[in-house]
Amino acid sequence: MCVCVCVCVGKLQLSLQEIIEWLTAKDEELSEQLPIGGDVGAVQHQREFHQVFMEDVKSHGPFIYSVLESAQAFLAQHPFQEPEETLTDGKEVSPRRRILNVSRSVWKQANVASDLWEKLTARCVDRHRHMERTLERLLQIQAAMEELAVALEQAEGVRDAWEPVGDLFIDSLQDHIDATKLFKEELTQVKEGMKHINDLAHQLAISDVHLSMENTRALEHLNSRWKVLQASIEERLKQLQDAHRDFGPGSQHFLSSSVQIPWERAISPNKVPYYINHQAQTTCWDHPKMTELYQALADLNNIKFSAYRTAMKLRRVQKALRLDLVALSSLGEVFREQVLQQGEHVMDVVEMIHGLTALYERLEEERSVLVNIPLCVDMCLNWLLNVYDSARNGKMRVLSFKMGLVSLCNADVQEKYKYLFHQVSGPGGLTDQRHLSLLLHEAIQIPRQLGEVAAFGGSNVEPSVRSCFRVAPGKPAIEVSHFLEWMSLEPQSMVWLPVLHRVAAAESTKHQAKCYVCKQCPIKGFRYRSLKQFNVDICQTCFLTGRTTKGKKLHYPIMEYYTPTTSGEKMRDFAKTLKNKFRSKQYFTKHPQRGYLPVQSVLEAESLETLAEMESQNCSFFTDSLSPDESLDEDQYLLRHSSPALDHDSPCGQHMLLAHLEHQDKDQLQCTLARLENENRVLQSEYRRLKWKHEEAVSVPMLTEAGESGPGSPTEGGQQDEELLAEARVLRQHKTRLETRMQILEDHNKQLESQLRRLRELLLQVHLCERHGDGVSWIDEIIIIIINIIIITSSGLSTTY
Question: Are strands 273-277 and 282-284 parallel, antiparallel or unpaired?
């Protein structure tokens, strides 16, 4: 029995050993099949070989399973549980122990064979799947490479058919740009295909499958061709865009003809033009013609009145830019075509050039006149940049662009007012203070560029805004009717615009009259007629420059005409002249009349006459306050009557005074009151001195009457009588002057005492209110009273001296 068992066990162990050796050899053979090839042919060959290999392994499966089952059956019959014992020398092994050792050996061999079989079969399956995936990806790569090669060949054919950019027509540049962009978009699929094929190659590399040398070279070649094609497209597009920018319809290339040798027009990086004089080796922002124009404008600096000086300068600019031929309707159409509707939108230089080019092309078409478009566009752009972008940033708001062109175009002044108002009005046709201040700010930049802004209220437009909103008191926004009503009064900040229209209207006017100064006949342009003297007419050159005839003084008021006078106007002027003959100079001083509306307010309720007597639509009124004989410019006139330092309505004046007084305590106010009382005592002392002189002068009235009633014939004391008479006349004149000064001082003294009395009452009220915590409520009234006291005191002292 034992012999039979041993024979069976020997055969089983031999079979297990053979299986182990065979599985080990197959495992090594499977490992030798790596790596997987990098092309379709190699992978297909490896796949076929692997299939034969798997069939061979699969054919040994039944035998292996049968041997493993026999081993399991043997181990079931002869289990071993005791640990293996070590036999001592000379001791025999029992049969039972020998069977246990054999069982243990079979168990070990069966486990090894089973593990090797499972591992080999699993590796075969994984290798088969890996080969299938690799083959699938290689097939995809191969198909994609073939497709991309065809697409790249077609694209390269299109690229090779491109004409050189230098041979293209300027008008076709934009079409070629669009075609190149479309071609670039069509190659999006090629771009995605190249990305996909590179991703597949990357995935194969991760799975330890490297493309073959042939596939690698083909893929690198495709990538190289694609990069070259992309670079060609980008370079072509850049060349076309640069050519379109430099030579296309929207470029500045056509403006290079606006200058002549030795000048050259150049462009800065922000597209702003500048000019190079190669002869003098200098550069400047202004066009050579613009420089000549500014030099010619200096000839108008001898005009005494700022509004007329500014208007006549703008008239020359208007003519130089040919804007006197441009209608407002044409401007509106150009603005709509160029989509320039939002006033706060910022334009660049290219957009300005597009708009100006379209404007002058329309002018040439509508008026059928020959226009040097490059020169006009360059000059107008130069002027707009000087006014609204003197720093040459290359940016300008649409509202600024419109304001400059509308102000100088050929249109009725009322239509200009309406158009400009609508640029800042809301959907309901209303505009608030912020938008109106923006409009006036853009307008004031025009005289500012000419250096005349001080005469028009300065750059601060807040007084003008408040003045306009006084037409509609209590309303947060105004309508166009309110704006037109205010503009009809010719406010100080905007008076240059209607004067510009009168200057334009007067250019072609001839008056059948002779100039009182230079004897020009007929008078061309403005005609100025004295309403104080009969038959005194002056031409615009003599009047505006202040030229007079030696020994002949011009008397005011004066009426201005910019259209021929009618018989009714002549009769009206005759009646006014006759009436003014009986009025003294003091009358006109007390009743001043201005040709504009001052934008700065006056003190308290003592309002001055601010509106001029505009007799008709074709005349303006001048008063003695603007007399050239006294060398008094309108700027000085404004300072005399409406100094901004005393403007209690202006925000800066009010806040400065309030801030100053809020930091003053009651002791400082008392010191101010004491100083004013001391000045009052000085005035009273001067009053008593003048009264004493007056009484002294009254003591000789009889002598004066006797001297005047005498025959005046020479006698023994004739020489002495003549001296007494002369002295009496001097004393009588002095008496008259003293009486006048006494009356003025008396009036000032009464006003000062009234203001001081009111100030004491307010100080007492402030002292009482401070105890209750509301003393600040009297600050405004105290400010006004102190200012009035200062004015009364200063005017009283000036009268004294």
Answer: antiparallel
